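#structure-requests
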Amino acid sequence: MATISPFIRPQFDSMPPELQEAVLNLDRKVENLNDLMNCLEQIIAQEEKTP
């Protein structure tokens, strides 16, 4: 499961629950906004590959 830094927690908590779950399932360390954006880009790329 991913680790969300307290510094980025407010932005993370403002996302829809489904998206929060998808980020947590990536099992990455999210320490700043750039890390969070990279996670979201990865989720989008995965969704685009799914038929």
